[in-house]
């Protein structure tokens, strides 16, 4: 297991108006030199108390994404976590699947205070939606609905999926021009987005864990202009892939007879 503690305080990176506290504590070079390998990471406070355990197919992208956590754009719980991080450790894994399994084992064993998914079982969610008059209507609810039951953790993934589907439809749009509901710290349970008919197939298949087509469309997009945006979108993609892997369907072709976005006329951007 590798480890580092707070040491350097480099100059303003210039990616955002406010420098994140992790950049101040660890320095930009630390995040640039993180391994791109799959693994599990650990955040601890100043006393060494474990705060959070996570996993990723790329430790550099996932851990680096916490540098972009700022007030007004992220939940207060995430802000509290970041403010308390003084030690970062990681454990390399052979494959992304191994990292997911290792995280599951560690969460059950150590139960860090800032972890929710994998530590306790909450109420399930149900998803309803469709495209009406050129607008994708999405509703996340506790009552039995069209798609579900979905895990309690889907509450967070709901916003991740909505942002990524919107990005596929509007690849040239900067994130600050996205609809307000997509950039709020907590995505509303009800969304209405100007998106084509194919958007519902992408979203609903991914919600079921069949995310292969959505991931392929994201991978076909050109990289963002700034490192900060690249880290953000890599993290969003990572979360979808992890969700699908836990659902047991990651990178598998859509099930026979399933409606796909390609059959509905949505082509890969920039192909």
As a percent range, the share of strand residues is 15-25%
End-to-end separation in angstroms reads 41 Å
Q: Which runs of at least 5 residues are low in confidence (pLDDT < 50)?
A: 8-18, 249-271
Number of strands: 8
Mass-distribution shape: globular
SS class: alpha+beta
**Strand line-up of the largest beta sheet:** 1-4-2-3
Secondary structure layout:
Blueprint: E1 2-5, H1 21-26, H2 28-32, E2 39-44, E3 50-56, H3 59-65, H4 76-84, E4 87-92, H5 96-110, E5 125-132, E6 135-141, E7 147-150, H6 154-169, H7 180-183, E8 190-194, H8 198-207, H9 212-219, H10 227-246
Antiparallel strand pairs: 1-4, 2-3, 2-4, 5-6, 5-7, 6-8
Helix pairs in contact: 3-10, 6-8, 6-10
């Amino acid at each position: 297991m590798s480890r580092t503690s707070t040491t350097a305080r480099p100059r303003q990176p210039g990616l955002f108006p406010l420098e994140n506290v992790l950049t101040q504590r660890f320095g930009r070079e630390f995040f640039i030199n993180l391994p791109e390998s799959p693994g599990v990471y650990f955040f601890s406070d100043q006393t060494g108390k474990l705060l959070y355990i996570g996993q990723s197919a790329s430790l550099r992208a996932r851990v680096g994404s916490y540098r972009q956590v700022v007030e007004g754009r992220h939940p207060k719980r995430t802000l509290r976590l970041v403010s308390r991080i003084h030690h970062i450790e990681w454990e390399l894994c052979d494959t992304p699947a191994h990292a997911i399994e290792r995280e599951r084992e560690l969460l059950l064993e150590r139960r860090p205070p800032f972890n929710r998914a994998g530590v306790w079982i909450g109420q399930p969610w149900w998803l309803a939606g469709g495209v009406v008059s050129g607008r994708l209507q999405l509703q996340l609810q506790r009552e039995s609905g069209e798609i579900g039951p979905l895990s309690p953790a889907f509450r967070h993934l709901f916003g991740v999926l909505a942002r990524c589907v919107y990005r596929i439809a509007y690849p040239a749009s900067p994130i600050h021009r996205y609809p307000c509901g997509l950039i709020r710290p907590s995505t509303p349970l009800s969304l209405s987005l100007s998106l084509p008919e194919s958007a519902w197939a992408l979203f609903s298949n991914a919600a079921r864990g069949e995310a292969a087509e959505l991931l392929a469309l994201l991978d076909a997009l050109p990289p963002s202009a700034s490192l900060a945006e690249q880290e953000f979108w890599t993290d969003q993609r990572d979360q979808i892939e992890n969700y699908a892997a836990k659902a047991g369907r990651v990178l598998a072709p859509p099930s026979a007879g399933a409606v796909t976005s390609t059959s509905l006329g949505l082509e890969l951007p920039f192909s």
